[in-house]
């Protein structure tokens, strides 16, 4: 593998809650976690149960190369399925680890407060502050850009809106788009840009008629787009249990965004926990009739940009 590779690995792509078992062995049952690796920089999107296995992988690397672990964790939002793996993320228990955590606050609660509330006795024996790693929690806003150093994996700066970016060609940019189509506080969509390559992570978002135009613009020309597609059109509009307003997309909504934005490859994520491998496969087949470069996310898959 080239040292200049821009890799995206799927550690969890199941929506709502973990779904282990015979019926989900192929695509996987862990909730959302994707990891980007560029040189020595680790960028993690969401801390669903998928982050647990990633933690073990990082720990093994750490035992071999003795390098300290520096992880940049970007949270789309703090619904359970996107943070429930954090208490079991093994590197968080090493004094030598640094975890830079990024996400949103609400009007009444800071990000660190929300994370702390998710790890409290009697629900969990270890409090967020008691985990040994150095944790730098940074709240982000719409249109922010975080600059990361590809060589060291550490943050170099945070820029707001149209502020002039002063960066080296080798710096990694992580850009933020606030999405409003997810109950109740919305979500953050992220783009990672490095050396002319672009990866967009857009989970837990619902489409609009004519597509989410802000998202289409944000994804323009992306090499890889991971987009929510929890539902088929039939399940989305099921008159017995309509899913409109639940904050998740159909396959068609995801494909529309990819087509309008000229995305090179589309990965469908946040598989419904009720969907067996067979159903996810048939969703993939349906999607491929609409867009040739599309597949359903599967745990363990690595995409190289
Ligand atoms: Zn979710
Ligand atoms: Zn959610």
From TrEMBL:
Domain Metallo-beta-lactamase: 43-271
Record-given protein name: MBL fold metallo-hydrolase
Lineage top rank: taxon: Bacteria
Keyword Ligase: no
Entries under InterPro entries matching the protein: Metallo-B-lactamas (IPR001279), RibonucZ/Hydroxyglut_hydro (IPR036866)
Entry keyword annotation includes NADP: no
SUPFAM superfamilies (UniProt xref): Metallo-hydrolase/oxidoreductase
Keywords from the named record: Hydrolase
Organism name: Candidatus Auribacter fodinae
GO MF term set: 3'-tRNA processing endoribonuclease activity
A Pfam family the protein falls into: Lactamase_B_2
Lineage: Bacteria, Pseudomonadati, Candidatus Auribacterota, Candidatus Auribacteria, Candidatus Auribacterales
């Amino acid at each position: 593998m080239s040292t200049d590779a821009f890799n995206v690995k799927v550690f969890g792509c199941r929506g709502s809650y973990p779904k282990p078992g015979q019926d989900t062995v192929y695509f996987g049952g862990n909730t959302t976690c994707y990891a980007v690796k560029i040189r020595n920089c680790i960028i993690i999107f969401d801390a669903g149960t998928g982050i647990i296995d990633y933690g073990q992988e990082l720990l093994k690397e750490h035992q071999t190369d003795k390098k300290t672990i520096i992880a940049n964790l970007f949270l789309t939002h703090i619904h359970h399925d996107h943070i429930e793996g954090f208490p079991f993320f093994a590197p968080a228990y090493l004094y030598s680890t640094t975890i830079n955590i990024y996400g949103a606050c609400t009007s009444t609660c800071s990000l660190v407060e929300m994370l702390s509330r998710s790890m409290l006795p009697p629900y969990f024996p270890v409090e967020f502050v008691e985990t040994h790693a150095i944790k730098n929690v940074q709240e982000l806003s719409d249109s922010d850009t975080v600059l990361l150093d590809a060589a060291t994996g550490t943050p170099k700066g945070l820029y707001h809106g149209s502020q002039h970016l002063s960066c080296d060609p080798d710096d990694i940019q992580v850009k933020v788009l606030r999405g409003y189509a997810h109950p109740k506080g919305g979500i953050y969509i992220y783009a990672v840009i490095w050396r002319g390559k672009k990866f967009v992570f857009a989970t837990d978002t619902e489409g609009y008629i004519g597509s989410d135009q802000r998202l289409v613009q944000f994804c323009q020309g992306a090499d890889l787009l991971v987009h929510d597609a929890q539902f088929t059109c039939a399940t989305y509009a099921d008159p017995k249990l309509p899913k409109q307003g639940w904050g998740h997309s159909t396959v068609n909504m995801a494909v529309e965004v990819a087509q309008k934005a000229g995305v090179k490859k589309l990965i469908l994520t946040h598989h419904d926990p009720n969907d067996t491998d067979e159903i996810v496969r048939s969703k993939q087949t349906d999607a491929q009739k609409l867009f040739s470069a599309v597949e359903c996310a599967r745990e363990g898959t690595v995409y190289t940009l």
